[in-house]
Amino acid sequence: MKFKSLLNGIKTYEAGKPMELLVREYGIKPGDIIKLASNENPYGTSPAVIKSLNRSIDKVSMYPDDSAYELKSALASHFDMLSENIIIGAGSDQIIEFVINSICDTNSKILMAKTTFAMYEIYGRLSGATILKTQSHEHNIDDFKDIYKKHKPNIIFLCLPNNPLGECLNTDEVYAFLDSIDKNTLVVIDGAYQEYARYKDPSKVIDPKDITTKYSNTICLGTFSKVYGLGGLRVGYGISNRNTIATLHKLRPPFNITTLSLQGAIEALKDQKFVHDTVEKNFEQMIRYEEFADKKGLKYIDSYTNFIFIYMETNSKELCEKLLKKGLIVRDMTSYGLNAIRITIGTKKQNDTVLEVLDKLC
Amino acid sequence: MKFKSLLNGIKTYEAGKPMELLVREYGIKPGDIIKLASNENPYGTSPAVIKSLNRSIDKVSMYPDDSAYELKSALASHFDMLSENIIIGAGSDQIIEFVINSICDTNSKILMAKTTFAMYEIYGRLSGATILKTQSHEHNIDDFKDIYKKHKPNIIFLCLPNNPLGECLNTDEVYAFLDSIDKNTLVVIDGAYQEYARYKDPSKVIDPKDITTKYSNTICLGTFSKVYGLGGLRVGYGISNRNTIATLHKLRPPFNITTLSLQGAIEALKDQKFVHDTVEKNFEQMIRYEEFADKKGLKYIDSYTNFIFIYMETNSKELCEKLLKKGLIVRDMTSYGLNAIRITIGTKKQNDTVLEVLDKLC
User: Is residue A246 within 8 angstroms of chain B, CB to CB?
Assistant: First the structure.
């Protein structure tokens, strides 16, 4: 078979190690595993969601409402916008895919931070576009401006706050940047962790209504996979002006999220107390990791998310392997060219164990 | 924003009317609605699946096992193949998308029957490929051969049995066709309804192992959305040689099916008695629609699926609207240029109601 030649250069994505693998490979009991590698919500999801899903199980044989009428209405109301401003994806990943595929071919260019969410580059390369990255690992707006002026990319990704590093640009820096670029470049603002940033520091808030109304060349992304605790159900959304959303809908496959995902997301959005409590506990627990790093003299990045990125002095890959054999899964950053680890902030009990083990190994 | 110009010609997909819409638009009570429009399993799903999903609900906050280790092993064992021969998609739709995007660009050609599963054309057009169709609505292998010789398409879709018409080519016709085409054309054999065809007539069976082993340029698709009763969970699969599967994996987004979808599919595959009973009841009930059509002098297509395609003498669109107002949802075929309806074969009770109403309206 003759497949597209650009696929020769594409590697298959390797996700973080799932628990099932540890159970299989090292014979560790499922109950003894602590997985803090994929920034899931360690408090699970809202009890109201669980209850609602239990009631909905007998609907699994029926296709979901393809228009996602109720979920779009709920999101529109949450963000003070209209349903026509919203598109639903199987995770915000899928919106990234729609955005890239609606614009890019082999003549296109996509700009992103040097170290940021892997899917921007993966979908970008699949489209045949050229990937441009800043010199700085973290988002540096001057870097972005320089490369923008030189290359006029078709799409720019801003991950605010940034996964896997945790830093976040200030709102006023973002607005000033948007003022400096022309309307033929689409700026994607990925707010997968915005609920965390907005709690920690109001100067990081990106308001989808305000920004997409002022700048027609922006789209904001959000997800139910993080603070809403629905990583397993794959629901994300994009918010933009009606023309951009209508165009992206042309790329959306029918029934792109499941019946239960739809139900879970609708319920999750209602329980903002769960969101608040999750974020509050997250930053209470994060202090413990910061204190640990300070005590050990390890550098870390000030985080506006539910994870912390810590530079290591010993080999981070070896450290992660040692942790893995003890049933502790965190993310090694060697593949990003950084001797560091990214740890999702767990529950108090999970962090007790992780910090105790790390204290011995670092 | 400058979106790709090929999107100008693309229409947004309109799925069948969901129940929620009837409830909203006509004020019909959910319990009074009979939806036989999307070929879901009217018997729901296996009780073992429901039980297993109930036990798994608390896993929704965790990402699924991205390798789908257990599901691929189970499918491999079911088809007497290896896990490396299998790829999992969010419905078999997603495998169609991978296949087209792995091969096609604006220079490519895709061949299909005139009236067949809509997603072949939708994904084909999104890739920029030229769509070629047979003259005949139903699959006609001589038509396929003629167009193949003239245009040498990159991909050929055979839908066996065919949705939305219901007919099915014989196995020996398919093998003879494969003998006549060269290895640079990928033939996709969509077996979404194969479990039904194989029960009704052994001369329609497509065995994925046999066909993909004999013809390296084939891929077989299957789904959990139909006989397994998991339409709402979006799980399908592709079976081919390891090289083709490895290439398609490069296009697979991480975590493309949900935690619950994975669990549901693993359990569903185990309950082959549910599959057998579903298919048996399906054909017992289908006879009633055939007898109805015969009585009314309406032509229908001999069906190897869980639906029946009936040509109407009165206007099919108007008929479907009348049915809709009574809470009965079936599929009008006007958009395919055919004055006909497609009815999913329901349970005895559902069919009692539908046939009674149809008797008055036809």
Answer: yes
- Tally the domains of chain A: 2
pLDDT at A16 over 70: no
CB B3 to CB A103 under 8 A? yes
Q: Give bridge partners of residue A325 from the DSSP assignment.
A: none
- Last-in-domain residue among B226, B255, B271: B271
Which residues of chain A neighbour B62 with C-beta distances below 8 Å? 19, 35, 38, 40, 231-232
Distances (CA, A) of B148 to A152, A198, A321, B97, B156: 43, 58, 54, 22, 9
Find out whether B251 and A126 touch, Cβ atoms under 8 Å.
yes
Shared-domain flag, residues A117 and A13? no
**Domain hosting residue B318, numbered range:** 5-44+273-361
Q: How many CA atoms lie within 13 A of B24 on its CB side?
A: 8
- What CATH number did the domain enclosing B347 receive? 3.90.1150.10
3-state SS class at A331:
strand
Mean pLDDT for each consecutive 10-residue tract of chain B (362 residues)?
A: 88 71 79 93 98 96 93 98 98 97 96 97 95 98 98 98 98 98 96 98 98 98 98 98 97 96 98 98 98 98 98 97 93 96 98 97 92
Looking at residue A57, the DSSP 8-state letter turns out to be G
- Which two three-digit tokens encode residue A9? 């250069």
Domain match, B123 and B266 both: yes
Q: The domain spanning residue A101 has which CATH number?
A: 3.40.640.10
Report if pTM > 0.90. Answer: yes
